[in-house]
């Protein structure tokens, strides 16, 4: 099966889960380690941080520009978080999938559910900690959160986790095992590429070959 | 996530597809190469062949015994094929899954659809040839089929293939690449084990840990 020729469109993989669970680390690991993956690009009104990599993850803008592009329909979902807007840039996303890239979206639970409504074939993966104490440790280590902010994040995590069953898959990002989580996600994406729903073209070709070859065989060629 | 502790039940994997596609070869390869898999056992009225391995694939019996066990409810699906009955032994199947084994069922399309109705969580995999000419070659090489029988098998294959979309996954068994097909099936099974629907226990435990740990944090421990 020439899977790529029959299914030229890439897959949309939504990596979600509570803040601090390590979405960014796992997504970066996939991008560094495996071929065929790209990251979706988001528009945000949050200020650029020193440690923001100079890559394609964010495009920064002010609130007016954000709202304008949202109204124009180029922002897929608008999430407000810590007083800033975040949203995926639709044109870039669809172009990537069209080119056959597997696009990783690293978004919060609310955004993930919105994406699933727009793209029912998107693969929703919920990244979770082994235990919630891991999450608290990670938020502390990050050092950018004051206690107030951290409480808000944990309360949000509690709310988010109730949407567990809206996700297709759950992957656990245990402390120090991000490579395993990355490998599992890549495995899920590969398995998903084998779903019958993604192979209508292959099915039609097989039916054609069967009708043309099967009818004359086996007797006709049986010397 | 202690996936195995939370989900002690194994998975039921139905490998189906037209006669001659290589179901047996692929299933044997999985059993030889990967841990944690077993084969389901069938009851059949077909005569034992010289090349039947002396393993657990078939239990042979006469037609009366078959019918009696079918009526008793121990035969999951009854398929008549080439004048003989075939059916999966229910008690052995359920015992295996209960013990946490991943049970591979190698059955025809008709049987596969019956299994899905009984066990909605079963993973239905359609094994197909790259091209239908491969199938004809394989049936010829097998040498146990006379032209008459081969025509019947090809006509059955045409009928079977129309059920393509009832299957969850399609795996292509290209000539000489059975190991790749086996690897893909194992990947599908692993990805399926990460479906949220299989992790209710993990979800509940996480919620509990969140409610007990999250409420006192972060302030209480923040010295």
Q: What are the SSEs and their pairings?
A:
The structure is a homodimer of 223-residue chains.
Chain A: H1 3-6, E1 12-16, H2 23-33, E2 37-39, E3 42-44, E4 58-60, H3 63-71, E5 79-81, E6 84-88, H4 90-98, E7 102-106, H5 109-118, E8 123-128, H6 132-142, H7 147-161, E9 169-172, H8 178-192, H9 200-214
Helix pairs in contact in A: 2-8
Can you tell me about this structure?
2 copies of one chain form a homodimer. Chain A has 223 residues and is of the alpha/beta class. Chain A has one domain (8-194): P-loop containing nucleotide triphosphate hydrolases (Rossmann fold, 3-Layer(aba) Sandwich). Chain A is built from 9 helices and 9 strands. Chain A has helices spanning 3-6, 23-33, 63-71, 90-98, 109-118, 132-142, 147-161, 178-192, 200-214; strands at 12-16, 37-39, 42-44, 58-60, 79-81, 84-88, 102-106, 123-128, 169-172. In chain A, helix 2 (23-33) packs across helix 8 (178-192). The two termini of chain A are 30 Å apart. At the A-B interface, helix 6, helix 7, strand 9, helix 8 and helix 9 of A face helix 6, helix 7, strand 9, helix 8 and helix 9 of B.
Average pLDDT metric of chain A: 83
Oligomeric description of these chains = homodimer
CATH fold-type name of chain A: Rossmann fold
Given the C-alpha coordinates, what overall shape of chain A results?
globular
Chain pair with largest interface? A-B, 52 and 52 residues
Report the helical percentage of chain A. Answer: 40-55%
Strand order of the biggest β-sheet of chain A: 2-7-1-8-9
Supply the number of helical segments of chain A. Answer: 9
Beta-strand content bin of chain A: 15-25%
**Integer-rounded radius of gyration of chain A:** 21 Å
How is the main sheet of chain A built?
A: 5 strands, parallel
- The N- and C-terminal alpha carbons of chain A lie at a distance of 30 Å
Q: How many strand units of chain A?
A: 9
CATH architecture verdict of chain A: 3-Layer(aba) Sandwich
């Amino acid at each position: 099966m020439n899977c790529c020729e029959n299914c030229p469109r890439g897959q949309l993989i939504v990596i979600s889960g509570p803040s601090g669970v390590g979405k960014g680390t796992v997504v970066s690991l996939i991008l560094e380690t495996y071929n065929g993956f790209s990251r979706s690009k988001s528009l945000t009104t949050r200020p650029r941080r020193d440690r923001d990599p100079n890559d394609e993850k964010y495009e920064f803008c002010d609130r007016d520009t954000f709202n304008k592009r949202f109204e124009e329909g180029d922002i897929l979902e608008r999430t407000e978080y810590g007083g800033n807007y975040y949203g995926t840039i639709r044109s870039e996303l669809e172009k990537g999938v069209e080119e056959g890239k597997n696009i990783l979206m690293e978004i919060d639970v609310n955004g993930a559910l919105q994406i699933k409504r727009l793209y029912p074939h998107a693969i929703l993966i919920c990244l979770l900690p082994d235990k919630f104490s891991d999450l608290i440790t990670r938020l502390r280590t990050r050092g950018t959160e004051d206690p107030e902010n951290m409480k808000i994040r944990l309360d949000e995590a509690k709310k988010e986790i109730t949407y567990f069953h809206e996700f297709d898959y759950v992957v656990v990002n245990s402390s120090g095992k991000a490579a395993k989580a990355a490998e599992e996600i890549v495995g899920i994406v590969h398995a998903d590429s084998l779903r019958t729903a993604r192979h209508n073209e292959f099915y039609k070709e097989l039916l054609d070959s069967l009708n043309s070859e099967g009818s004359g065989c086996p007797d006709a060629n049986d010397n």
